[in-house]
Structure formats: C-alpha cells, structure tokens
Amino acid sequence: MFRKLLFSLTLLPSLMWAQDFVDVNLDVKHAVNGVSQFDRSKFIMIHASSTDSEWPSEAIQKQFLEDYDVYLGRDNGSLPWNLTICEQDPAKPGWPSISYLQQKGAQIKSDYLANTNARQYENRRSAYMIGGQEGMFPNQTAE
C-alpha cells in the first residue's frame, strides 16, 4: 500500500501540469513557404523500385502503390550488384571494362523497355535516389 501511495505522490506534480490544449480553427489555412497541402510523393515512400524481385506479385505491387498512394524512393541494390559482376579491363586491372559496361547498359535498357509493368510506375519515382557504397570505387574511396 505504501508503494502505491509513494508512486502516486511522485506522479502528482507532473499530472497537475500535463494538460495540453488544442485550438482548432476550421476557417484558417496554414501554409509554410506557400505549401499548404501534404505532398505524399515527398514523404510516403518505400525503399524499393518497380523492378525489385521482392514484390510477391504484380497485383500486390499495384494495390500497394496505387491504393495506398505510395511512391518509390530508392534503389540501392542494382548498381552495386551490377558492379560485382562487371568484367575488368584487361589493360587496367581493378577497373571496369568499358565495352562490358556499354553492353550491360544496353541490355538493362532493353529489359526495362520490355517490362511494361515496371514502366507504368515511372510517375511514382520523381524523387528517386540511386545509391552506392564507397567500396564500389576502385580505390575504395569516393575520390
């Protein structure tokens, strides 16, 4: 009983002053730097791309992106993965083969153009970020 009383007394001062008041004015429009509406394309993003293999099905991808109004935010996997399979320049060990990169780039473009499901979500990646890690550079730095 004493513990309960002691606990109650320690909370009493904070409970006396822990009151918040919310003033709602339905006739006032709030704007910051001219922006007055929430932009879902800036703030409601998923760390994914339209070509990710993790989507269980095209139907689930469509439902998630369109019904919940979610946008595609990042692709941090394809660039590092492609660099791990990249052939070296025989004249310059440790550096990528330019001809291999040109061939692979043309193949990726062709695959993307053939993938109509992925292309239908281009409007959902206006603030898209493609990232990479420092270990992707030949000298292990971003210089």
Low-confidence stretches: none
User: Strands of the largest sheet, in order across it?
Assistant: 1-2
Note the run of SSEs as H and E: HHEHEEHEEHHE
Q: Span between N and C termini?
A: 67 Å
Task: Please indicate the percent range of residues in DSSP E strands (runs of 2 or more).
Answer: 5-15%
Q: Structural class of the helices, strands and pairings?
A: alpha/beta
Indicate the overall shape. elongated
The mean pLDDT is 80
Strands, count: 6
The helicity comes to 40-55%
Radius of gyration: 26 Å
Helix and strand arrangement:
Elements: H1 2-17, H2 40-43, E1 45-46, H3 58-67, E2 71-72, E3 74-75, H4 78-84, E4 88-89, E5 92-96, H5 98-114, H6 116-119, E6 129-130
Parallel strand pairs: 1-2, 3-6
Antiparallel strand pairs: 4-5
